[in-house]
Amino acid sequence: xxxxxYLIRHGKAGDRGRWERPDELRPLTKAxxxxxxxxxxxxxxxxxxxxxxxxxxxxxxxxRPLAERLGLKLEQDLDLMEGMGPDHAARLAxxxxxxxxxxxxxxxxVIWELLTDLEAAGVPLTAGIPAKKGSVWVLEVEAGAVVRGxxxxxxxx
Length: 157
What we know:
By secondary structure, this protein is α/β, with parallel strands linked by helices. It is built from 4 helices and 6 strands, in the order βαβαβαβαββ. The protein starts with a strand and ends in a 5-residue tail after the last strand.
C-alpha cells in the first residue's frame, strides 16, 4: 500500500431543522465533540501529513483535535462543502503517499457520492456504503488510485 486517505464524516451536529443561522455555522453537539476527541485518539499514531476539512464548523471541529495532536495545520477547502460533489475529494484522496497519509473531513453527500463512484469503478469496499456521523473510511491508495476502502464505524461515545 502506497498511501492512506482517511475520509471522515463530521461528528454529530445540532438539528438542521432547528438551526436558524447559516448551516455552515451549525456546531457539533456534546456527543460530536466526544467523537472528535475519540477520532483524534484513534488516529494519533497514523502517519498523517495533512488534515483537510470542509470549512463548515461541524467538519472543522471534528478534525481540529487530531490536527492539534499531530502538530499539523488544519487546512480548509471550500470544495469539500456539502453539495460540492465527489470529484475534488477524490482528487485529494489519491494524493496520499507512503508515510504521509491525509485526512479529509466532509459531509455525508460528498462521501456517499465518492463511494458510489469508487464502487462503480470496481474498487472493493466493505459491505454497503455506510457513512454515519463520526465514521471513517480508510481509502488505500496505490499508483495514484484508490484500490480499497474499509469502513470504520463512529466511536462509541
